[in-house]
Amino acid sequence: MKGTRAAQRYAKAIIGLAKDKNATDAVYDDMQSISQTIANSKDLKSMLGSPVIKSGIKKSALREIFKDAHAITMSSFDILVENGRIDLLEVVARQYIARYYTMNNTQQAIVTSAVPLTKELEDKVQTKIKELTGNEASLKNVVDEDMIGGFVLRVGDLQFDASVANNLNRLKRELKNNTYVSKFN
């Protein structure tokens, strides 16, 4: 992805400053909001990447949209605009979030399921995450109504597929490889 290395450097600097000011949690909340807002708004994303729109307008728009953000977050807008890198804001936010998780020895897990997770299911998923990785994780539940049932868990580069479709496919492969069943076909 374009600018990932630069975004990593900016995120490292922002988290370093946030640590010094004991504001890592507040800036983390801001970065979550920034990441989600930009990802969900094509207009904001194209405005930030547009070479036609002046930097001052971009900075003013960000200050208005994220007016409740921490001072460190606001100053990061200024630095990104001054350096002509404001188009990297979404990537910087994601990099900050990743560094925050590493710093706190936690991670984000994405659970895709047919229905929203109940508290009981969240606890079971947290147990599975702890079993797989040895660490806790913050859960993000993605509802996919096309799933028959079960769930798919992604933590970093690990994936645990406990979906009904996966189990049916595995059973189908086992039956195809079974010499007794294959004689009846």
Give the tags.
185 residues, alpha+beta, Peroxidase, domain 1, 4-stranded mixed β-sheet, 4 strands, 61% helix, elongated
3D architecture notes:
The protein has 185 residues and is α+β, with helices and mostly antiparallel strands. The protein folds into two domains: 4-103, Orthogonal Bundle (Peroxidase, domain 1), CATH 1.10.520.20; 107-179, no CATH class. Helices cover 61% and strands 12% of the residues. Strands 2-1-3-4 form a four-stranded mixed beta sheet. α2 (24-40) packs across α6 and α4 packs antiparallel against α5. It is elongated.
Question: How would you concisely characterize the structure shown here?
Answer:
This protein is an alpha+beta fold and 185 residues long. Helix content is 61%, strand content 12%. The chain has 9 helices and 4 strands; from the N terminus they run ααααααβαβββαα.
| Portion in helices | 55-70%
Proportion of residues in β-strands: 5-15%
Total helical elements = 9
Overall geometry comes to elongated
> What is the CATH C level class of the largest domain, in words?
Mainly Alpha
The topology string of helices and strands comes to: HHHHHHEHEEEHH
Rg, Cα atoms, Å: 22 Å
Assign the CATH superfamily of the largest domain.
Answer: N-terminal domain of the delta subunit of the F1F0-ATP synthase
Which CATH architecture of the largest domain is right? Orthogonal Bundle
Q: How does the major sheet shape up?
A: 4 strands, mixed
What structural category arises from helix and sheet content? alpha+beta
The total beta strand count reads: 4
Could you give the order of strands across the largest sheet?
A: 2-1-3-4
Q: Which whole number gives the mean pLDDT? A: 86
- Could you please say which CATH topology of the largest domain applies here? Peroxidase, domain 1
* Count of individual domains: 2
N-to-C span: 49 Å
State the low-pLDDT regions, or none.
Answer: none
Membrane topology: Peripheral membrane protein
Family: Belongs to the ATPase delta chain family.
Function: This protein is part of the stalk that links CF(0) to CF(1). It either transmits conformational changes from CF(0) to CF(1) or is implicated in proton conduction.
Pfam families: OSCP
